[in-house]
Amino acid sequence: MIKENLQEKITEAYNSETFKEQGYKMIDMLSEYLANITKDTDSRVFSNKTPRQVEDIFKCTFQGDRGTEYIEIEKDLMREITPLHSPHFLGHQVSSPLPLSALSNAMMSLLNNSNCVYEMGRGAAGIERAVTKWMCKKIGYNESSDGFLTSGGTLGNLTALLSARQAKAGYDIWSEGVKSEKQLAVLVSEQSHYSVKRAAAIMGIGNNGAISVASDKNYRMDINALKEEYTKAKAQGKEVFAVVANSCSTATGTYDDLESIAEFCKENNLWLHADGAHGAAALLSDKHRGHLKGIEHADSVVWDAHKMMMLPALATGVLFKNGKMSRQTFSQNASYILDRLDDSNWYDYGLRTMECTKPFMSLNVYSTLKHYGEKFFGDYIDYVYELTKEFANFLESSEDFEIAVMPESNIICFRYINSKADLNDLQIKIREKLLDEGNFYIVKTGLRGKTYLRCTIINPYTDMSHLKALVEDIRKIAADILHPVS
Ligand SMILES: *Cc1c(COP(=O)(O)O)cnc(C)c1O
Fold first, then answer.
1. I want to staple 316 with a disulfide (CB 3.0 to 4.6 A). Which of 43, 58, 156, 331 is the partner?
2. Cβ 317 under 6 angstroms from ligand 1
3. Domain, as residue range, for 128
4. Which residues of the chain have pLDDT under 70?
5. What letters, b where the CB count within 10 A reaches 16 and e where it falls short, cover 362-389?
6. What's the pTM value of the predicted model, to 2 decimals?
7. How far is the centre of ligand 1, averaged over its atoms, from the C-alpha of 9 (Å)?
């Protein structure tokens, strides 16, 4: 009896006609969103609903509500999203995905081919190989390089650093664990993403095992400071095994000087990891590739396709100059097995990643690259990087604003300065009011004791007119804050 009931429900749940019908409605809904949002600058990009209110909206008992069309449930959600396709979305480093990539993602989900082992998804293995080999080539690596995709730059940084530790620790750390008599450490820019310090803590070398290296006035890793910190760490008996460079940094979008850092690493037998989560995609731009000069010397590189390639979360390339290094991360160390780590089982990707099951994340990278061609992505980089520079020049020429540093990528930090009031406090208040009004979404960041407003110009629909409108809004808000009409 119960079984029959279930059978009926299963048949209904897997009904291909229902899938088609709801699917068409879903496409209609998303197409309408897309058609409006890329032009619309009047409606809110930020809702000032409190977390508590949102909690109440979605609270339910999950008893099953098959009276409601599936699409209606999704429509409820549409009212509470942050619309990343709005040209007024200027906040975090999250892309406005190419619509066709969402179709690949739907396909990826239904087919659910995970390529932990080849037999689970041979197409997924082949496509992941094509995408990662392409990334290696763009970096300038030779044929002995290799990599894989993983779920995000945070996990990518951890995996690359585990590899570095395995390669440089000098004993079988994977089996024996971290020994207290040998204090391992990595040197990282003070401007590093927090995931690097977190990785150090996870690896058991402690947050303090990630030694901060000061940056220069442009927020680029200071090479002299790097040398000093290294000498100091050695004198304290610490065993430094890697340097992590920003390509580019999160807060200001500044690229570290990879050539000089690589030279230093070579002299001292250190692993160089380039965190290109945000900025490695500039390798696709003829104009901006120069920022990554020397990246081919890095032992490992992390590259988020879901940041600067207009793709949805998540797809992160973890690329290794010596492909064997990517195969020894989760196995016993020691060069004696390195020889056996040849390329013959490249297709069992689970051996090299933190994940066992993982999504078929290479599909949308592959499909959109194949469809649009890599030049399209390079041109996109050119557009947003240059727009950001234009915006910086505009702010520089306005007496009431200052920028933290001339941007090298599509990230810009700036502040309103036309006041004798506490400027840090003022920026915070400006942003609060701006978000309260909801017409723009921007973030803030602290740099050397100063609070800045921060934009990531990542949506290809954003242009100078939107940025000028933002400036006007900020001026009005600042005036209201500084001279309230009571
Ligand atoms: C965004 C970012 C990360 C984290 O990547 P996720 O994909 O968000 O996990 C790491 N490093 C840098 C420099 C970043 O900008």
1. 156
2. no
3. 111-372
4. 1-2, 332-341, 486
5. bbbbbbbbeeeeeeebbbbbbbbbebbb
6. 0.95
7. 42
